[in-house]
# Entry
Amino acid sequence: MKLRSLAVALLAATMALPNAPVSAATFSTNTAIKGESNSAVYWYATDGKRYVFPTEGTYYSWFPDFNNVRTITDSELASITIGGNVTYRPGSKMIKITTDPRTYAVSKGGYLRLITSESMAISLYGSEWAKQVHDLPDAFFVNYKMGNTIYSLNDFSVSNEYHGVVTPSDSIFNSSTPSTPNTGAVSVTLAASRSYISEGESVTLTGRLFNAPSYNYRLDIIDVRSGSTILACSGTTVCDTVVTPYRNNVNTHNVQYYIAVKRISDNSEITRQYSPVIYINAPTNGLFSSGSSKLEVSKTSIDDGEPVTLTATASNINVADNQLRMEFYRERDNALLYTCYDSRVCTYTHQVYAQSGSNSERYYVIVKNDNNEQIPAAYSSRISITVGSTGNQNLFTSVDKTSITSGDVVVFSSHIGIAPTTNYRTEIRDPKHNVLKTCNQVTNCSYTTNVTKVGSESSVVYQAFYYADTNNLARYSVTTFPTISFTGTSYSLNTSTNKTSIISGETVNFTAQLMNAPSTNYRIEIYDQNNTLRTTCNNTSYCYLVEAVNKSGSQSSVQYTVKAIDNYGTLLATKTFPSISFGVTANPIILTGTASLTISPSGTRPAGGTVTMTATASNTNVSANNLTVRIWAGVTPVLVKTCTNTSTCTASYNVGAAGQSIPVYASVTADNGSNSLLSTTSWIYTN
# Structure
């Protein structure tokens, strides 16, 4: 049977119910209810609050029809506080949002469980699993919490999840939080989401504090094996993290963590509690019991800027090739230069340059397995570097300006005074020796580019390399361009938000502007209160973020941060956004009024044709600036368009193939609203 739109279903349910409303005394909690004059259906839960069914799919995941919905008076409905939204019945459907391709199963308590592959989805929901996926509007995604990833059939049972609940109350009031210990003393618990894993799989650790002390304290989650702190949480009763355990030697097949309460003033431990033991189903191979490595270089004496090939070899190891990686490092600054995978032999070619105060270089390689074990590092021979004569009179350089503002365009020009007849070239390079342009067999070479200040530097120097040799084009000389100085450039960020006091879950607009921004080669990053990157804007002085801001635990405010960074990773500027405080949650608004939808042109449409749909909210008790209007289409509704801060919304829609009957309708919601206004369903027919 095709699903009807929610508006039609609610109307049918209303017509089937008695005309007179039921007295509140004649029904109990754990009942679906509605008011006399509004078609919205709520779940009257065991806590005495009503919960909204935000979408058609959510309602039908719990109930096949509306036969058991009870009608009560509008005044009685208004007296029942809104508690939140109902989530999908566990195990009933998979869900996703339209802006994210990832698909999730639903667990008790509104937890989303990521399904890692199509084969896993088939194992759980059958070969036609895709038909069991419902798209959830982004606005309702915040009603759910992220649970553990599904790696195997042992991690999730569709039948157990589905039959583990009877009514929405069973999922609304489920909590995976460990129960409170029966004691008045300070105490903690640490739960683990899984007890058996394969290496590389994640485990969620859930820490809770009970009877918090009055002094300043923190919660530390610690790895028992290494004694290292995984996470520190200050002044909170909740401390959760995700870990990816590995065996650390051939005889270790398990791992355990503990959570400790520590007094900040003297770092003394007040109490601790251990997690369950997590057993690792690791393969029998993949660990180093022996082995060695070596690193060879193709040359031990070179000219400045000449390439050298490094060759690493691993020997006498009992680890499969596909579990190996080799990491090449430069000794003087321990910089990681290159990594190769799945091989016992690896080569890497690297251009070597002399540094101030040093005319030699050395490298080393570290061989690691998938468990991050390593055998002792192998070092190369030291490479001596001969620095050629700079300012060679046969190679001349110039720039069109020597004093600039960061981001200005500079023209670099070089000229060979006496050139050979063949086999020569000129390279123009930036301060990090990156080749910007190569000119072959010509005496004049020029390059135009934007020169950008990096960090606090006051000047930059570019170079020209001249190669001339009838046999192998050995470097003949290097000449620097005139020094370019930066003047009057300082970076700063301006930040603003459209709200500084909100109810948890409200949408906030964040705006950041980089002053004196360079013309290219930079980005702006906005981070939330947990230092999680929320958006990146490349090569633009303005950066915007619009998202729902949610309260966590007992926090009273949040503050986001913005950073401007150049392409070399140098921080140009950083600044916090205005602090956003959480107000006391007000009683949600019950939206009244009418939603309507018109289609133009009307009548049967040819296949592939386009119609214009216009949704309108009329006679509402909320101003248009606080309304969101959406247009939906399809038997399983798909969002066509969303319009915010308005009472009207217009969208073009392609009707698709011939022989279709497409239901369409409009919904209207209000900021801090508890319900939706739904238009009657219209139909688009194609021939």
Remarks:
- Residues 6-16 form the longest helix (11 residues).
- Residues 455 and 570 are 5 Å apart (CA to CA).
